């Protein structure tokens, strides 16, 4: 079932990848056929691709030209710990990476948990989203859980099978990792946030809905409507057209009932040209989280269009509680199935669109889960 799901999904993803590569070729400056030796010092790499300058002679570089940063610089200026392993009390294993920002406080840091999409890894997701740079600026830790290929051959989180042995169990394992890291590093239990892309967005929703007392807010980029799919075949259908079922009952079927008392602030981001996950999913997610947060159907969202006429244009819908935004939908005009405003040299990330990592962190900043960590998990 899972193989069938991923096969169909990645036919669309492969086509998208070709379109992205073609766009990058068109956008990148063409190298000159000949250049005098004296002018090699002015050669610049193609946007986002330092390796394209590798033919320039380092011995002739001018003193005023900054040296190229090593590839690891894309992971921020703090401490990157790859290939960590977590084991829960039942012996289940989960690989993850951890990023601690430079000059971080010893205790009390917020934490953002980033969940990659299919065919991605914790490393590629960190590089593509550039979330670590925002961690340096905002002073928060970032965790990057990584799906095992033994669980799902394309590293897809199994949001499309939300039962306990599959996707539900993965959500619980991620929650156990978060609790362990909060205790180990003295993180702020009231500022735990979960974000994801595509299959990672589906899993971010499951983690937040199954563990509402742990998670203060969730962000879902190019994610499917919650609770519609229960098999791999259902997952394909959900991605293509959203749900045809009543939205609140299917949400209730996968959520801890406590979330309807606690609420769950949510940010939803969706490319309007996405060929893999239909934009209707984002609209339906908006309605699901409107109901979950006790926002009335008759209340009109605050609407703004930002970046009009540019490649970063998007429409933003906000639902407020008091002075705080508890639900936000960003419909990104020219974006396909990729992380908006990311590093386009990394697969499934696009240069165009607003910086999704900035939007995610800014949404999270003012939100807390009051009293989190006081009760036993």
Key phrases:
377 residues, alpha/beta, 10-stranded mixed beta sheet
Give a short synopsis of this structure.
The protein has 377 residues and is of the alpha/beta class.
Please give a structural write-up.
This protein is of the alpha/beta class. 31% of the residues lie in helices and 18% in strands. A 10-stranded mixed β-sheet has the order 1-2-4-3-5-6-7-10-9-8, with helices on both faces.
Biggest β-sheet: strands ordered side by side in the sheet: 1-2-4-3-5-6-7-10-9-8
What are the segments in which pLDDT stays under 50 over at least 5 consecutive residues? Answer: 1-6, 19-72
Beta-strand fraction estimate: 15-25%
* Order of helix and strand elements from N to C terminus: HEEEHHEHEHEHHHEHEEEH
Topology:
Layout: H1 2-27, E1 79-87, E2 93-100, E3 111-115, H2 122-129, H3 131-138, E4 141-146, H4 167-185, E5 192-197, H5 199-210, E6 217-221, H6 232-241, H7 247-252, H8 259-262, E7 266-271, H9 280-292, E8 302-306, E9 314-321, E10 324-332, H10 356-365
Parallel strand pairs: 3-4, 3-5, 5-6, 6-7, 7-10
Antiparallel strand pairs: 1-2, 2-4, 8-9, 9-10
């Amino acid at each position: 079932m899972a193989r069938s799901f991923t096969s169909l999904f990645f036919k669309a993803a492969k086509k998208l990848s070709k379109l992205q590569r073609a766009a990058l070729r068109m956008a990148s400056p063409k190298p000159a056929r000949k250049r005098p030796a004296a002018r090699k010092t002015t050669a610049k790499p193609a946007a986002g691709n330092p390796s394209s300058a590798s033919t320039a002679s380092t011995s002739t570089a001018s003193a005023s030209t900054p040296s190229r940063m090593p590839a690891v610089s894309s992971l921020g200026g703090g401490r990157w710990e790859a290939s960590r392993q977590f084991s829960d009390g039942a012996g289940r294993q989960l690989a993850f990476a951890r990023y601690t920002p430079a000059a971080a406080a010893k205790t009390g840091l917020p934490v953002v948990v980033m969940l990659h999409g299919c065919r991605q890894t914790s490393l590629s997701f960190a590089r593509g989203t550039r979330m670590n740079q925002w961690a340096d600026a905002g002073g928060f830790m970032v965790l990057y859980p990584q799906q095992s290929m033994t669980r799902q051959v394309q590293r897809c989180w199994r949001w499309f099978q939300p039962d306990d042995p599959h996707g539900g169990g993965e959500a619980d394992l991620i929650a156990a990792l978060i609790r362990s890291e909060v205790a180990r590093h003295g993180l702020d239990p009231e500022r735990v946030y979960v974000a994801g892309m595509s299959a990672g967005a589906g899993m971010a929703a499951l983690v937040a809905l199954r563990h509402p007392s742990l998670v203060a807010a969730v962000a879902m980029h190019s994610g499917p409507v919650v609770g519609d799919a229960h098999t791999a075949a259902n997952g394909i259908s959900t991605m293509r057209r959203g749900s045809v079922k009543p939205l609140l009952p299917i949400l209730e079927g996968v959520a801890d009932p406590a979330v309807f008392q606690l609420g769950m602030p949510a940010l939803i981001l969706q490319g309007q040209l996405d060929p893999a996950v239909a934009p209707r999913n984002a609209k339906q997610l908006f309605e699901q989280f409107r109901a979950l947060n006790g926002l009335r159907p008759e209340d009109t969202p605050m609407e703004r269009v930002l970046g009009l006429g540019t490649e970063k244009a998007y429409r933003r819908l906000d639902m407020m509680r008091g002075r705080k935004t508890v639900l936000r939908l960003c419909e990104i005009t020219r974006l396909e199935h990729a992380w908006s405003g990311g590093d386009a040299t990394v697969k499934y990330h696009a240069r165009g669109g607003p910086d999704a990592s900035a939007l995610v962190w800014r949404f999270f900043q003012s939100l807390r889960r009051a009293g989190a960590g006081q009760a036993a998990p």
